[in-house]
């Protein structure tokens, strides 16, 4: 990403098949958590001004591996970025981190 120097990074990739995640939770950890950590770290390292991440409603009060892995990924991104509370984006399942 350093070569392209993006202003905004969009992150919507995730493993979202609940039965697969419940059966093999390690795939959800690798994809949803480590994948999001890699994207967030790359966005920060490239100097991107913002990162838009698709947030799943199941991450609000997680009751499945999908919700848990998505929640952890969201918490990691919030750890180093200030969250802008935009009602339209929140209602459509997106978070804009800057």
Secondary structure layout plus pairing:
Elements: E1 8-11, H1 18-23, H2 25-46, E2 50-54, H3 65-80, E3 83-84, H4 87-91, E4 94-97
Helix pairs in contact: 2-3
CATH topology: Rossmann fold
Query: What quaternary form is this?
Result: single chain
**CATH architecture identity:** 3-Layer(aba) Sandwich
The biggest sheet amounts to: 4 strands, mixed
Q: Order of strands across the widest beta sheet? A: 1-2-4-3
Low-confidence stretches: 83-92
Strand content: 15-25%
Overall geometric form: elongated
Q: CATH class, anyone?
A: Alpha Beta
Number of domain units = 1
**How many strand segments?**
4
Mean pLDDT: 77
Radius of gyration: 13 Å
Order of helical and strand elements? EHHEHEHE
Helix content: 40-55%
- End-to-end gap: 17 Å
Which superfamily, in CATH terms, is the homologous superfamily? NAD(P)-binding Rossmann-like Domain
Enumerate how many helices there are, as a single number: 4
Instruction: Label the structural class.
Output: alpha+beta
